[in-house]
Write a structure and sequence with these properties.
175 residues, alpha+beta, GMP Synthetase, Chain A, domain 3, three-stranded antiparallel β-sheet, two-stranded antiparallel ribbon, globular
């Protein structure tokens, strides 16, 4: 896809969002259900069912997906798509690119071994390996715009409002 095609495809969306900001607010959903035989959650991806389980560092078999890996994979996917869209819009010569994310976890936190150890990633590093002959200022601009418009990166960077709700069905007591 070239820049003109991308801009033509996005123009009516941008116009609609400028005219009515409410049209731009979309609620995305993810759903899953726990497995009744093992410690796992079956996540509906829209294409298939992905089964997530415990990481081997917390006692898992390694046969299921790890939600921490899935978070990094979501970051890579979003950053890669955003990079390609920005490069296309800027008419940036990009012959190829690899996107990698890695994060550091201290599993003492999630296992409750140490209250000082955080639960979650301590650090996440996103790396782009670009195949391009563009000058450094254009590369810097591409990366800056990719960071700015990558939904997953910005969500991790700014921390959204989080809430938890419970809908518990309780069995009726028998007399």
């Amino acid at each position: 896809m070239d820049s003109a095609t991308l801009k033509a495809m996005q123009a009516p969306l941008k116009d609609a969002y400028r005219n009515d900001a409410g049209q731009a607010l979309i609620t995305l959903r993810a759903r899953g259900s726990i497995d009744d035989q093992k410690i796992a959650c079956k996540v509906e991806t829209g294409r298939a069912i992905a089964e997530a389980g415990l990481h081997p560092a917390t006692g898992g078999s390694g046969m299921e997906l790890c939600s921490g890996d899935m978070l990094l994979e979501a970051l890579v996917a979003c950053a890669g798509v955003t990079l390609k869209a920005v490069a296309t819009a800027l008419e940036f010569r990009l012959d190829g690119a690899r996107v990698e994310a890695e994060g550091d976890l201290d599993f003492r936190g999630t296992l409750g071994v140490s209250k000082e150890a955080p639960v979650g990633f301590r650090a996440i590093r996103l790396n782009f390996d670009l195949d391009t002959d563009e000058p450094q200022d254009r590369i810097d601009s591409l990366i800056k715009l990719t960071e700015r418009y990558c939904v997953v990166f910005q969500t991790l960077n700014t921390r959204p409002e989080l809430s938890v709700a419970v809908d518990a069905e309780r069995p009726v007591a028998k007399l």
